[in-house]
TrEMBL record:
It comes from Nitrosopumilus ureiphilus. InterPro entries: Endo/exonu/phosph_ase_sf. SUPFAM superfamilies: DNase I-like. It comes from the Archaea. This is Endonuclease/exonuclease/phosphatase domain-containing protein.
Length: 275
């Protein structure tokens, strides 16, 4: 894991265990990097940043995004039931508050929102939980947009990135989750044309996203990006053994092992050039 992280200047990690011994063990191999993380939240998870101390600097702006209960009445969406009748759902808070930090790279300042959006269930299995997932992303984008565009400048920096596990099933115009992050004010980095177009090791979902405020996207050049398919490079002996013993069932058995040994997600990476 340390070898995967080492080349990058800034890394946002989700699903860090409440027990920090494992992440500290990784940091032993990254002496040039710093680490900062949240307390535990939903599912006893932490959100974490790892950053190269010689390249990128922490500012004084560090916190979690939690929309006050008194303001949540403004964060609601209208859905339709099977009969086509409208029903209103109101935002009730994040399962895991996005972790907000502002950074400085040379003379540039920007803010990142490390997110692990509520998953719940697939649309056909539990409609209410699926709507909660959509509502979390809608509320995140609405809050950031309103504060960034406010004439009094209510955010530390208007240069904003939203990144992490947003549980986006598919990066298509018809996907209800994806619609919330790819709109008039934000643009999602499209990696679906990449050699490995999925961010989960089952090769069927685009859960992980890097979303950039459009004014910020115009200030920098996205030189290249992709998915780091670590599962194609690790545990080769295990894969060969499983393939020999289980044939077509080898893939599911390999994925079950890799999920707990490393992760069931692949890192999304981007290389930017600032003007």
């Amino acid at each position: 894991m340390a070898e995967i992280l080492k080349p990058f200047d800034l890394v946002a990690i989700q699903e860090v265990n409440s027990d920090l011994s494992a992440i500290y063990a990784v940091m032993e191999f990254l002496p040039s990097h710093g680490i900062i993380f949240t307390d535990i939240a939903g599912n006893k998870e932490r959100l974490c940043y790892i950053f190269k101390k010689s390249k990128i600097k922490l500012t004084s702006h560090v916190g979690e995004l939690d929309i006050p209960p008194s303001d949540r009445r403004h964060y609601k969406m209208t859905f339709h039931d099977d009969n086509g009748d409208p029903c209103i759902h109101r935002f009730s808070g994040f399962d895991r508050n996005p972790y907000v930090i502002s950074w400085k790279f040379k003379e540039h300042t920007f803010s990142t929102y490390n997110c692990h959006i509520y998953f719940g269930d697939e649309k056909e299995d539990d409609v209410l939980k699926f709507r909660r997932r959509i509502l979390e992303i809608f509320s995140l984008v609405k809050w950031v947009t309103s504060k960034t565009n406010h004439k009094n400048g209510f955010v530390f920096s208007p240069n904003v990135m939203l990144l992490g596990d947003m549980n986006v099933p598919a990066m298509t115009k018809d996907d209800e989750v994806f619609k919330q992050i790819n709109n008039k004010t934000f643009t999602a980095v499209d990696y679906t044309d990449y050699l490995t177009p999925y961010s989960n090791i089952k090769n069927d979902k685009t859960y992980d996203q890097l979303v950039i405020a459009k004014p910020f996207a115009e200030k920098m050049l996205l030189k290249t990006h992709g998915i780091f398919a670590w599962d194609n490079a690790m545990f080769n002996e295990l894969w060969l053994d499983l393939k020999e013993r289980f044939g077509k069932k080898a893939a599911s058995k390999f994925q079950a092992y890799a999920k707990w040994a490393i992760s069931d997600h692949r890192p999304l990476w981007c290389l930017f050039e600032f003007d």
